[in-house]
Design a protein that fits this description.
heterodimer; A: 578 residues; alpha+beta; FAD/NAD(P)-binding domain; 7-stranded mixed sheet; 6-stranded antiparallel sheet; 21 strands; B: 217 residues; elongated
């Protein structure tokens, strides 16, 4: 029996939760299909367990359920990613993809909530203007976005107010704001809450960067710094990145949008249910619905006028491809991901790195995006440098240890004894350019337990990617020295990872169907009513975390869907009266 | 015939290792994170128990890796120094571990190196993870490095520079569940505990109240 809805949303995470709330409040009957659990607050009453959440990744998917393979180039044999199969040959969970269940990536993220800069939407033009068209790497599909920062500004504000973001705006309608980031793009309103309290390790970072003539600012985070909309302020427990929040201070959609959607009575939420394929009309031009497996293992079909994929960029791509939807061959192209350039220091003062959330700290934007200094490494686009104050538990600290230290015997034991309480971290987020050599498609050999092909990622770091890490590493080194660090070290510029929750670009939006997958509202070219929303829509990538832009795009899509729904009701109204 | 009730290891029930394997594990772990007077290392903190129990549970896929790995370690010690690992003196044990550590990066195909990488990872987990997993007895590693454990909140004042976190009594996950239980049942100790005072949803007793089994310790 076919079930009929106004809209079907696949994935109840960051974007899906937002869209569910908007559509149900506008009166649409919505079916939400979520492969993970429907999390209630009682699930996370005790989260202070590094083994359960950070090592075993209890809320994440596993390679046995959602296999992803990787190869550096098209000539290499793809294999299950080293950490996704578990470094111990175990099908353990991995952080390559978002948390599953209601809330998705907003459950486990450290909740950085940045807007992109004006230039991030026009990266190709900005690079060509400054460095010349010839500077853009050969073959790169780098392009400007079909929308600008100004288009998205009101939607960013909605994320900040409706989800709850703490920070200090640096530029309100062109007026510089004391204590804010002087490089901020304009905003109509300040954040609804002041920044969260700053961890001790961030104090030397702010002092050092100020002395160096840089401009530290407090990072915006989707964490309550004070009680907001009935949810409490952060209590600084220090189990944040990789952990659901035990008090509900982190603005996850499982406690913001999804309960609001459920309160309308218009949402049918099927958790532990998995979409197998998207169904279309015979000519493929109109979406019809989805076929899915429910929590009891029964295969079911549902139909709707609109189907919205919000299952994370990579899973959106997998669903499109297994459904045979790739008319112009663009699905899965333009894969982009962040290279985090992690930099660890040991400071002369106690940093208590286990107190407070990771991003209860500052950053500098002096080297970000178009502000990248002239340099001898040919780096064309910069990144913020973020200070990480809290949220460092002992096992993770061991993994960050200096490679030069012996990892056994008293060397290991005494290193942890003498240094753990003094550790400070910095990172940047540089990215690869969109390029035909980086893409994802279906793996021809590896299948999941439902018999569907695994996603295959083809990606490798280029010289530009490595040079970007090296360049930002120089600045981090200056900062570490100025902080008086007694020791410091950094990640290799070509890290072993190629998959993270920050993967984007693979269902790019654009006006031209020959070079993109969706339009600016996320509607898939050539298939009316089918939407693919999220980081997959990004056209280029700067150094900020993707989530606030993902949610801003979700609000944009929701508005568009509601307008269409109202227009169709009006039309029906007219035909009824005829 | 009567079974002996004396523990063959230091007070816990083996679920996977044979007694000989457990002894060899103890000897190997003692070289990865050594015991010192007044400061237990991996052996003293019960990491062998963590690994043994994990191998009987969520790490069961690795049972053959451990069984073969320990046999390979014995064979290597025998061939190189003419004796089983656990009977070598400290200097020679150190030399064996040095070689295993070298193999981890020098030869990704070397089984002994890969085995050592796995053992070391699990040793770190058992030593620094919550005592609920069977290692980190008495939260010894947390006391060593100054980690106050499973704290559910710090005040904004404690977040400021200069706060001496070693003054905070260490808390484990088990303590959190015990407090929830006690507060649920209204004991005086829990009434005076401000750990859970904060905010809506911040009180796991209110949240968990009806779901915590009454017989939970």
């Amino acid at each position: 029996m076919t079930e009929r809805y106004d809209a079907i949303i696949v994935g109840m995470g960051s974007a899906g939760g937002v869209i569910a709330e908007q559509l149900t409040q506008a009166g649409l009957r919505v079916l939400a299909i979520e492969k993970g659990a429907d999390h209630g607050p009682e699930d996370f009453a005790v989260t202070q367990d590094e083994m359960r959440y950070h090592q075993n990744g209890s809320q994440l998917t596993t390679i046995a359920v959602d296999p992803v393979t990787w190869r550096p180039t098209v000539t290499a044999q793809a294999r299950l990613l080293p950490w996704s199969s578990g470094p111990f040959g175990q099908p353990i969970s991995y952080f390559g993809q978002s948390s599953t269940g209601t809330g998705g990536g907003t459950l486990h993220g450290a909740a950085s909530s940045y807007r992109f800069r004006e230039s991030d939407f026009q990266m190709r033009t900005a690079i060509a203007d400054r460095f010349g068209e010839a500077a853009i790497p050969d073959g790169s599909t780098l392009a400007d976005w079909p929308i600008t920062y100004t288009d998205l500004e009101p939607y960013y504000e909605r994320v900040e107010y409706e989800q709850g973001v703490s920070g200090r705006g640096g530029n309100i309608n062109g007026e510089p704001q004391e204590g804010g980031n002087p490089f901020d793009p304009f905003r109509a309103r300040d954040y609804p809450m002041p920044p969260v309290p700053q961890g001790p390790g961030d104090v030397p970072f702010v002092q050092a960067t100020t002395r160096l003539g840089l401009h530290p600012f407090r990072q915006p985070v989707a964490i309550n710094s004070e009680e907001y909309r009935g949810r409490p302020a952060c209590v600084n427990c220090g189990f944040c990145h990789g952990y659901p929040c035990h008090v509900g201070a982190k603005s996850g959609t499982h406690i913001t949008s999804i309960p609001a959607a459920q309160a309308t009575g218009n949402l049918v939420l099927l958790s532990l249910s998995r979409v197998l394929r998207i169904n279309r009309s015979a000519n493929g031009r109109q979406v019809r619905g989805v076929t899915f497996i429910d929590s009891a293992g029964a295969e079911r079909e549902a139909t709707a006028r609109s189907v919205i994929l919000s299952a994370h960029a990579l899973q959106n791509v997998r669903l499109l491809l297994v459904s045979g939807i790739n008319a112009t061959g663009q699905v899965g192209k333009n894969f982009m991901t962040h290279n985090f350039g992690r930099f660890t220091s040991v400071l002369p003062v106690a940093t208590n790195p286990f107190i407070g959330s990771a991003n209860a700290s500052s950053a500098v934007d002096d080297f970000t995006s178009e502000m990248v200094p002239d340099n001898d490494l040919g780096v064309l686009w910069g990144s913020p440098i973020m200070s990480v104050a809290g949220d460092l538990q002992p096992i993770e600290a061991y993994h960050l240890m200096d490679r030069r230290v012996k990892k056994f015997g008293l060397d290991l034991k005494h290193w942890m004894r003498d240094n753990y309480r003094f550790m400070h971290r910095m990172y940047s987020q540089t990215t690869n350019f969109p390029h035909p050599q980086n893409f994802c498609d279906l793996d021809p050999l590896v299948k999941d337990r439902w018999g569907q092909p695994a996603l295959r990622v083809t990606h490798d770091w280029t010289d530009h990617d490595a040079n970007s890490v090296a360049l930002l590493g120089r600045y981090k080194q200056h900062i570490a020295r100025e902080m008086g660090a007694t020791d410091y070290w950094m990640d290799a510029p070509r890290p072993p990872y190629h998959l993270s929750t920050h993967d984007v670009g693979v269902h790019r939006m654009g006006e031209n169907p020959a070079t993109s997958v969706t339009d600016a509202y996320g509607e898939v070219h050539g298939c009316a009513g089918l939407y693919a929303v999220g980081g997959g829509q990004f056209v280029s990538y700067g150094g900020y975390n993707p989530n606030e832009t993902i949610q801003a795009l979700a609000y944009l899509t929701a508005d568009h869907l509601i307008e269409e729904y109202s227009a169709s009701l009006a039309q029906q109204g007219i035909s009824d009266s005829d | 015939m009567a079974f002996s009730t004396a523990p063959v290891t230091s007070g816990y029930t083996l679920l996977f290792f044979t007694p000989a394997e457990a002894s060899l594990m103890d000897a190997l772990l003692a070289r990865i994170i050594p015991d010192e007077p007044g400061s237990p290392g991996a052996k003293g903190a019960g990491v062998t128990e963590y690994i043994d129990h994990a191998l009987a549970g969520n790490l069961q896929d690795l049972q053959p890796v451990y069984r073969d790995g320990l046999r390979a370690l014995s064979a290597y010690s025998q061939a190189r120094f003419g004796s089983l690992f656990r009977f070598l003196d400290g200097r020679l044990q150190e030399a064996v571990v040095e070689e295993l550590d070298r193999l981890v990066t020098a030869d990704e195909q070397a089984f002994l190196g890969q085995f050592f990488r796995i053992v070391r990872e699990h040793t770190v987990q058992g030593y620094f993870g919550d005592p609920a997993y069977g290692g980190n007895r008495d939260a010894a590693s947390w006391a060593l490095i100054g980690f106050p454990g499973a704290q559910q909140r710090y005040s904004n004042e404690q977040l400021m520079p200069g706060f001496n976190a070693s003054e905070v009594p260490i808390v484990t996950v088990n303590d959190l569940y015990r407090r929830i239980h006690e507060k649920r049942h209204g004991t005086a100790a829990a009434e005076n505990d401000d750990q859970f005072e904060e905010g809506a949803g911040g009180d796991p007793v209110a949240v968990l109240g009806s779901t915590v089994p009454a017989d939970r310790p």
